[in-house]
Design brief:
It is a single chain. The protein is of the alpha+beta class. It is built from ten helices and eleven strands. The strands form two sheets. Strands 1, 2, 3, 4, 6, 9 and 11 form a seven-stranded antiparallel sheet that branches. A four-stranded antiparallel sheet has the order 5-10-7-8, with no helix packed on it. The protein binds 2-oxoglutaric acid (AKG). The site of 2-oxoglutaric acid has 10 residues, from strand 6, strand 10 and strand 11. 2-oxoglutaric acid binds next to strand 6, strand 10 and strand 11. GO terms for molecular function: 2-oxoglutarate-dependent dioxygenase activity; iron ion binding.
């Protein structure tokens, strides 16, 4: 599957796209696999705060296969090129609101997130809200819109009242957004389920130090490798293209992350 030129123009212009029902036929096994990851934590999610596992899809071979799925890989290739990098995954039981933020400020290359919400959500029950066009970092709007991260003090507007689009979802819908896009959610339950796949354009050979810094910055827990073992173990030649750049830099990963906390734990953000 490829995104059409109109879908690409929409993404370029607004910084996100919703693909309704794209994984509808698969959502039963995807949800079962999602649930199968969480028992690795000692504590069960009790709704008092967000529980997050990183890397997430990497824990289960079936979830890893999403990286090869022609629909997911097709979206990634359309937005990032045939040799895109897989940049990891997080799985979440969210509790409550997520304030306005960008996931990064990437100028040199595009980073995107593919998000699968596993419950039906609308704007008042925790659907992802986005500010269209806010991914354009250096447009005047892209600069001014930073005020939303302190909306109450800077604009006298509460987070939920910031003008935005709520991306209502049912399980099987796929949301794709640029890491530079401002996003948030409000009114969600204490058990809102979601996981992501992060992907980016391949780094140039002259930018590998930047890639090394990036993967260390995103190392939340002590681990042997940026990727989970199931992701590496089950990779065929096609997937390896999307892992090889990060894989090549992971030789000293265990040493560099040795002071971070260890899974299993109740992961907090
Ligand atoms: O669903 C949410 O509450 C926020 C999701 C989010 O911020 C993210 O995945 O980066």
């Amino acid at each position: 599957m490829e995104l059409t030129k109109e879908q690409l123009a929409f993404f370029d212009t607004f910084g996100f796209i919703k693909l309704s029902g794209l994984l509808k036929a698969d959502i039963t096994w995807i949800t079962e696999e999602f649930e199968a990851v969480f028992p690795m934590l000692e504590e069960k999610h009790d709704g008092s705060k967000r529980t997050m596992i990183v890397p997430f899809a990497d824990q289960r071979e079936k979830l890893c296969s999403l990286v090869d799925d022609p629909r997911i890989a097709g979206i990634a290739k359309s937005l990032l090129g045939d040799d895109f990098n897989y940049m990891g995954s997080d799985g979440n039981y969210y509790t409550g609101d997520t304030g306005w933020h960008r996931d990064g400020e990437n100028r040199a290359r595009r980073h995107v997130k593919i998000a699968l919400y596993l419950d039906a959500l609308d704007g008042s029950s925790g659907a992802l809200r986005v500010i269209p066009g806010s991914h354009r970092l250096d447009d005047k709007f892209g600069v001014d819109v930073k005020r939303v991260s302190q909306s109450q003090t800077a604009l006298h507007v509460a987070g939920p009242d910031v003008p935005a689009v709520a991306l209502d979802v049912v399980p099987g819908d796929v949301l794709v957004f640029d890491h530079n896009l401002f996003h948030a959610s409000f009114g969600g339950s204490t058990h809102r389920r979601m996981f992501t796949l992060n992907l980016c354009e391949r780094f140039g050979e002259d930018a590998l130090d930047e890639l090394r810094a990036y993967i260390l910055l995103h190392a939340h827990f002590k681990r042997e490798h940026y990727y989970g073992s199931a992701m590496l173990r089950s990779a065929g030649p096609e997937r390896r293209v999307h892992l090889e750049q990060v894989d090549a830099l992971c030789g000293d990963y265990a040493e560099r992350t040795k002071d971070l906390p260890e899974l299993p734990l109740k992961a907090l953000i």
